[in-house]
Write a structure and sequence with these properties.
The chain is of the alpha+beta class. It is 35% helix and 20% strand.
Length: 219
Amino acid sequence: MKAWSFSSLTAFETCAYQFYRVKVIKNITEKPTEATDWGKRVHAALEERVRDKTPLPEWAAQWEPLASKFDRHGDSVFCELQLGLTRSFKQTGFFDDDCWYRGIVDVGIDGSHAFLGDYKTGKIKESHDQLKLFAATYMCSHEYVKSCDTKYFWLKHKKTTQLVVPREAVPVIWQEFLPRVRRLELAHENDKWPKNPSGLCNGWCPVKDCSFWKPPRNR
């Protein structure tokens, strides 16, 4: 099993069979959508603005007040930070052989009380799981950090979701994730990938030869 990420874990939990076809044996390709293409454009524009001070294009100018807040933090600001951890929760290279978990933080500010931000271009969701995972990983990789102020930026809705994670919460966070990761590992070890029918079967899933797949309803 390759290193897991938050997106791969949630994809597996949504439907193990789809995950197997798309991510494991890779005999199905997910085609990019208008939403995913737009999300990539947004992330790229904000990265270039925060990192290089490149002016935002006209269509993204609405997020200038957000991007400009990072200007005053100088060299402590980072963008698209790749984080890798070993099974022992030690820092390692993103693509190293011993990498067990990997994640990418969209934007952040380093320091003893760090800030970690994640740009979201879709609908608002209530889960804080990804924020917790970012904070736990960052503090495992940076021993001097005492806490992480984490935030989702819901760009379409001009709202945020904030969660402050102290260092003492890190072991608790890993205990929440380890059983979930273990189920993913067992699927690999036993080569068992059960189907999980849901509303996504109605034309949204790329695995069209699945017995649960149905043509899309009127959207």
